[in-house]
Amino acid sequence: MSGAFARLAAAQLLMTVLEEGRTLDEALANTERFDRLKGPDRGFARAIASAALRHLGRIDIGLAPFLDRPLDTAPPPSRAVLRIGAAQAWILETPDHAVVGETVDAAKKWPRAQRATGFLNAVLRKAVADRSSFDAAPIQSIWPTWFQHAVQEAFGADASAKLAETQLQTPVTYLTSKQQDPAALAQQVDGEVVGEYSVKVEASDLEGLPGYAEGDWWVQDIAATLPARLLDPAKGDAILDICAAPGGKTLQLAAAGASVTAIDRSKPRLKRLKQNLWRTGFKGEVEVIQADATTWRPSEPVDKILLDAPCSALGTLRRHPEGPWIKSEADVQRFPDIQERLLRGAVEMLKPGGLLVYCVCSPLPHEGVHLVDRILNVLPLTRVPITASEVRGFEDGISAVGDLLTLPNGKFQHDAFYISRLRRDS
Fold it and tell me: Which terminus of the chain has a smaller tally of CB atoms within 10 A, N or C?
């Protein structure tokens, strides 16, 4: 019985994400049926929904031969049930009888899907017997067509396939040390130093790890540590961290002894930043301002600025595989407008000779290199090329002009970040 309820929760999570355009994290926090689950059932529901989102496009291709009409014409509850059934069968390798029986039972308990149980039973029986179309689908087909085309046009077939492969991996958790001593932190939490500054851990209960309550570390993707490091923060530097929440880079800057002002327009996101500052002992050392950085200005120009601009976040597919499905191509094309306005504002806040690091967790060129190239033609900025010695492990991501794009390189798991370091001329 509990298996049916876990599957019902998974189907409702999936429908919340795809039909309401929410992230999986938002769905997990706001789906009543999932909230009722306990223990293994809760973990299983999350695993099903996550697997379905990671492989979504291929699942739809795999189901197509068993349908009389396109899947997107079916009612949303039926689509969700079929997808979570296929995810169990083809990805989680759940026994066939459980895939069919428990998933159909879940539909019977869901008023919005009850009338379709005969149809769902028939399709799922075919799905557990034949996965050939799923297996034959190209790996890039996990994404919607628009994103497949965008990535392939930008990087070619091989690189787009590698980016798709990263989406199918279980996300790795990395920690950053407050004391900037990864070896000591690795020993403390029984982790492994990866790269030069990050510690990989296997624990699922992060709050139970040594040093959590003491604020000795924070969770941060290894690629996300690079922008703050490339700013070379030092004691006494006056640094603005623009679009700072939830605060991982703010904590890096503060740990280096800089005088940091963290700015973000979102009150809920700033609440998370303040919680992180409190836990790590930086409360009172970092000035936190809720403001729109396109119009807000400091009392005087600063030495350095870190601008982690709002973006499509399509470089974080390991942790957010729903991204390309809940954003349209038109949505993604809108980001350069706010990114450019923030860059223009940042230049006004920066001292002549000061450094600006611009970054986005997106691999798409129109949010990265194309935008920076355009800005350099109209603003008093010059590139300060990133060097291999500054980003060991990511050397192959340095472009001919000295920007960095952290596409998958096979050395370790990480998000895709675009980073450009700039200096104000006058």
Answer: C
Rounded-to-integer distance, Cα 364 and Cα 382, Å: 22
DSSP 8-state secondary structure symbol assigned to residue 398: B
What is the residue-level pLDDT of the chain in tens, covering all 426 positions?
569 999 999 999 999 999 999 999 999 999 999 999 999 999 999 999 999 999 999 999 999 999 999 999 999 999 999 999 999 999 999 999 999 999 999 999 999 999 999 999 999 999 999 999 999 999 999 999 999 999 999 999 999 999 999 999 888 999 999 999 999 999 999 999 998 899 999 987 899 999 999 999 999 999 999 999 999 999 999 999 999 999 999 999 999 999 999 999 999 999 999 999 999 999 999 999 999 999 999 999 999 999 999 999 999 999 999 999 999 999 999 999 999 999 999 999 999 999 999 999 999 999 999 999 999 999 999 999 999 999 999 999 999 999 999 999 888 899 999 999 999 997
Residue 414 CB-half CA count within 13 A:
28
Give the integer Cα–Cα distance in Å for 246 and 92. Answer: 33
Strand partners, 166: none
DSSP 254-306: HHTT-EEEEEES-HHHHHHHHHHHHHHT-BTTBEEEE--TTT---SS-EEEEE
Domains of the chain, start order: 2-137 (1.10.940.10), 220-424 (3.40.50.150)
pTM: 0.94
